[in-house]
Amino acid sequence: MSETMAVSAARAPGRRPRRQAERAAEPRTVWGWGSITVLVLLAAHLVIVLFPFVWMIYSSFKTNREFQASVWSLPSALNWSNYAQALADGSLALYAVNSLVVTIVSVLITVTIATAAGYAFVVYRTRWMPAVEIVMLVAMAIPAYIALVPLVAIIRQMGLLDDYFGVILPTVAFNLPISVLIMRGFFASVPGDLIEAARIDGASEFSTFLRVMVPIAKPAMFTTAIVNVIWVWNDFLFPLVILNSPERKTLPLGLTDFVGDRTTNYPVLLAAILLAALGSFLVYLVFQRHVIGGLTSGALKQ
Fold it and tell me: What is the pTM assigned to this prediction?
């Protein structure tokens, strides 16, 4: 026992200078006025962003009388009946199914077209490809509100008013530019030797794309799908102007059922909004690493 203590005591002085040297080698944060200003601005931004969500959460537990008396005060007790009333009074389950149908079909079409287009933009560099890329960038800058009137006219002529495909087609069209750019960025980071090796082995262009590139592109396709799921699930504009039947409403549009002509029970409305946003929030919370990684893929080329 004494020999062990002697050995440890002999090693201790040698370890301390090493640890001190490692700590001294670590970079230290210098707190100047610039760093403090940036920290204060970031803290203020965090408060501005988080406060509406915090306010919605605690306001959804109020009674309607408490909400009318003071908008900013905390609830006297956790009133879970607002969530029960939101589920009972509204057809949230039906609206959620409608949103699920629109979201799944829109995302499948968008990801399929974006994957093929992103691959074509990287592999087939013809002289008109830069012009197409400029057109896509311009399309990203055009808000949907500008094209709303001619879009509704086209949908009416196609006979797709009050139809799910009347919502799906414009949703795919407006989500395609950014989705194509995400997939293009990924394919640009893939070594071209893989394509050349597949061609040398006698694989056709379609076989090269389907059997070689698509399996490699699954992470980027997954990221594109998650981004589109969040966008389509929360879309309010296209269902508002295209869908008329109450039984075809999507979840964001169905929240208008909780707004009365004369009075509105705001705590129940806030509870319904939180329930509607729970799905997209959980999807982003679980897959945020994939979303950020996919959006930045292709930024650095090896």
Answer: 0.77
